[in-house]
Amino acid sequence: MAASASPDSGVARIVIENCAIATVDADDTEYASGHVVVAGNRIESVGAGSAPEGLDGVVRRIDGTGHLLTPGLVNTHHHFYQWITRGLATDHNLFNWLVALYPTWARIDEPMAAAAAQGSLAMMARGGVTTAMDHHYVYPRGSGDLSGAIIKAASDMGVRFTLARGSMDRGESDGGLPPDFAVESLEGALAATEETIDRHHDASFDAMTQIAVAPCSPFSVTTGLLKQGAELARRKGVRLHTHGSETVEEEKFCHELFGMGPTEYFESTGWLGADVWMAHCVHMNDSDIEAFARTRTGVAHCPSSNARLAAGIARVPDMLAAGVPVGLGVDGTASNESGELHTELRNALLINRLGPHREAALNARQALRLGTHGGARVLGRADQIGSVEAGKLADLVLWKLDGLGHSTIADPVTALVFGAAAPVTLSLVNGAPVVEDNRLVTVDEDAIARTARAESQRLARIAAGG
């Protein structure tokens, strides 16, 4: 039987039918051939077989034969600015990679940030991401309105977006990794973050733009910024995000500087809780995982970046078994040059099977859940997005699975996760098309590529002193 919300006869409707559907609801309900009715920006009904007869206001009817419909993918960790520094420092671990690239990143300006955001968003959206996030933490002096440029890029593309307004106040002279000219003062970072929240955060059910408070990492911010950042976020009612437990070097740094491991340090500064999510969390022991589960602290799992920087294999099966909220992240494209989230569905499954759980680590449906409902939960939006259910926002992706790349894989979810990247026939965000026939419809992706290339070359010349 179809699940449906109360019908509204005065709203425009889109009907998608004859497709396989993976709802990723609490029961993992699936339909071998089903329908979804979108009314305005909401899912009105979903169920087996054809859509109900006699619907009013149908403006579009889509035959989904040969397709799988899923919730839109939700990206929970990224650094958009890195789009214009891809392919550099390819054989470095995290700390050496950061030292190599910070001097270049510290020279970005507003046009560069805008071009990089457009490129990052375009790559993700074309690959099925309907909700994106950006952890932007590099704010060089005199660089312009970087946060505004990033938010505008997401708005122009039509994707749902969380800007995690980052910050760094621990430069090289204070024992941090970034050069001193790349960091803000504690007071300046807090003031700028609060101003960004006041200008841009939308707390409504169907919000397209939200803001999180996001000091960068234990080795690039002071304890004061972490503590006061947490206080600011909770006073403003927004979420908190940072990097945590990414490498063994970070764990050593925390023990040497603070006398405790990363999780203990974060808890001492107010950074565990149901309103917090952290990127990576690769080096977590049993007590760390228990602390995250107890406090419902979320994790953004970034398997490709973790492999690129030789950080290790996160204990995702153990986190899930303990009840830790886990989503997927692209991470910055200077450590994951592909820049799209479908790769992370596949790599989360494959890389975790190299760990102690082997073939029992993750299956295809668990991987899809990480990239959809899991991400929505981590971003605090599981009541609104992340599954195909009546009443939720119409953020949906229709994947084409009847072509050469998937033609001999009978199960559609297996085809999506194990197979090659599937073409996106249609991506809806808030009920509006963003991708059709594997092309962006809201922006000119060829123009984005040209602009990003030009800004990348300009940044390289500036960094080289030219």
Q: Helical stretch count?
A: 14
**Derived structural class:** alpha/beta
Range of helix content: 25-40%
Shape: globular
Number of strands: 18
End-to-end separation in angstroms reads 66 Å
Rg, nearest Å? 21 Å
Q: Which sheet architecture does the biggest sheet show?
A: 10 strands, mixed
Q: Report low-confidence residues grouped into runs of 5 or more.
A: none
Quote the beta fraction.
15-25%
**Mean pLDDT reading:** 95
Structure description:
The protein is of the alpha/beta class and 466 residues long. Helix content is 35%, strand content 22%. It has 14 helices and 18 strands. The chain has helices spanning 94-105, 110-126, 146-157, 186-200, 223-236, 248-258, 262-268, 286-295, 303-308, 316-322, 342-352, 364-378, 412-418, 445-463, and strands at residues 3-4, 13-22, 30-39, 42-48, 58-63, 67-71, 73-74, 129-136, 160-167, 209-215, 239-244, 276-280, 298-301, 326-328, 396-400, 424-429, 432-436, 439-440. Strands 1, 2, 3, 4, 5, 6, 15, 16, 17 and 18 form a ten-stranded mixed beta sheet that branches. Strands 7-8-9-10-11-12-13-14 form an eight-stranded parallel beta sheet. Strand 8 (129-136), helix 3 (146-157) and strand 9 (160-167) form a beta-alpha-beta unit. Helix 2 (110-126) runs parallel beside helix 3 and helix 2 packs across helix 14. The protein is globular, with a radius of gyration of 21 Å. The N and C termini lie far apart (66 Å). The mean pLDDT is 95.
